[in-house]
Amino acid sequence: MPRLPAVSGAVAARAFTRAGFGAVRQTGSHLILMKPGIDVTLSVPLHAEVKRGTLRRLIADAGLTVDEFCALL
Fold first, then answer.
1. pLDDT 10s per residue in the chain (73 long)?
2. Torsion angle of the four alpha carbons 22, 58, 13, 72, in this order, in degrees rounded to the nearest 10
3. Relative orientation angle of helices 52-61 and 9-18, to the nearest 10 degrees
4. Are 17 and 72 in contact (CB under 8 A)?
5. 16-72: what fold?
6. Which of 24, 27, 32, 69 counts the highest number of beta carbons within 10 A?
7. Domain segments of the chain: what residues?
């Protein structure tokens, strides 16, 4: 399993946007992203650094691999 880089919530949200997700709303410090055509909602915490376990779960929920996500960064 490849090691995930330490990224901020804004950088992670930008990578998911490149993957086709769009921002729907922001609730507090969490940005809610959705992708047309699939029934997945991502809640990306806009913190200085997203914990690696949280980021790995978001990547899996988005249907991406870690390598694909790193390429989107």
1. 678 899 999 999 999 999 999 999 999 999 999 999 889 999 999 999 999 999 999 999 999 999 999 999 9
2. -100
3. 20
4. no
5. Metal Transport, Frataxin; Chain A (3.30.920)
6. 69
7. 16-72
